[in-house]
Amino acid sequence: MEVDCLLRIFAANMIYEIFSSLPLMVCMVMVIQLTLTYRRRTGKAIGWLLLWAIATLILYGCHYFYFNHYSILMPFSDTVYVMVNLMVYPLFLLYISAITDRKPLAQQSSFLWSAFTPPLLAGVIVGSLYATMDAHEAKAFITNYLYRGYESSLTGLALIQAWAHIVCHIIFAIQVAIVIIRGFRRIRRFNKTVQQLYADTENREIEEIPTILILFVVTSLVSTIVNVIGRQIFVDSIIISLPSLAFSALIFALSWVGMHQDFTIQDIPEEQEKETNDNNENIAVTPSNQSIQIYEKLESMMNEQQTYLKNDLLLNDVAKQLGTNRTYLLAALNSCAHMTFKEYINRKRIAHAEQLMAQYPLTPKTEIATLSGYNSMSSFYRNYSLYHS
User: Fold this and answer.
1) How does DSSP classify residue 362?
2) pLDDT tens figures, 125-163
């Protein structure tokens, strides 16, 4: 009976050890992967993603020390944790901005000051308070506040330290809200621009946009909740497995999606981006006679020549064939069809694929996809699920 009890305690301790270190291990793997990717594909976007991953690695290293009661390191690791915790989300926004902004936030000193002054100040204040507190005050703060979540019994510098941590939690929650809003806007605007200019957006737009946005929101919400309720409820408890698995999966997914995003706004000529933005802002409620004529010519060309079957079809190519320019063609698509260029072409392709499948039901789907203008089955299936009648 005693042996059985000892085995259960040992198993519980092993499980706790695994889950307390799992996010740290995932971060290590992703930092290595991103470093190798950065060496092959240098770029500002992947550089910011690598910095974000390194910051996350440091953050979960501090978590590991905390959850495994490295009390002697706590003044140092808690100071680093407070500072890096307030850097992670601004770094991720810098990564998104490097992909989506013609003038990235990294080039805007006002953003850099507002984003990184709070974490640096927080690190200086928390570190200074730890350095000023005597051993009794430091132990009281670590034991009562960090591990139990109590502040009522604290006095003097220990109480001020607790207030400093509460302020940091509030700043973190504000950061999360700002990064979600600004990140969403940038990703959507970027993808809208890509969809207006390219029929085949695979490896161009931020792929799996619903997935990355959901991951982004879930990560933010989980981070905020854990910061509000405090890490102490997970100490020496098997329920640490819940946030551990959640954060590990989210860190891996965000890193993986980002690692495969090579196309940025810098790959789009500036005048083309401006045209799409102008058209998005000035969509006519009632199409002009010129737009109607261009759209009718477009429909005629598509039906007669089946131009939509061409691989990697560009808006510019279609505009030249019609004897017009990108601006007028975009205006015609927006006002007459209320579609992006990507949606218009892919609706044509999927309608063509449905005709082929009806006429030749035994033809393999791979052949149907190729005959319908698709370079990959993943692109075919994704568009088929969107535009299947």
Assistant:
1) T
2) 999 999 999 989 999 999 888 888 787 788 899 999 999
Give the closest residue to 176 by CA, choosing from 259, 244, 85, 252: 85
Among 379, 373, 342, 378, CA closest to 356: 373
pLDDT of residue 259: 79
382: which residues sit within 8 A by CB, 6+ positions away?
none
Helices (H), the chain: 2-40, 44-67, 74-85, 88-100, 109-132, 135-140, 156-197, 209-229, 241-259, 270-281, 289-305, 315-322, 326-332, 341-359, 365-371, 377-387
Dihedral through CA 148, CA 151, CA 155, CA 160, nearest 10?
110
**pLDDT of amino acid 7:** 54
Residue with tokens 């009281």: 140
Task: Tell me if residue 314 falls in helix, strand or coil.
Answer: strand
Q: Which residues contact 294 (CB under 8 A, 6 or more apart)?
A: 322, 324, 328, 329, 331, 332
Contact, 198 vs 315, CB < 8 A?
yes
Name residues of the chain where pLDDT drops below 70: 1-13, 41-42, 207-217, 219-224, 226-230, 271, 273-286, 389
Nearest to 27 by CA among 254, 221, 248: 248
CA 91 to chain centroid = 11
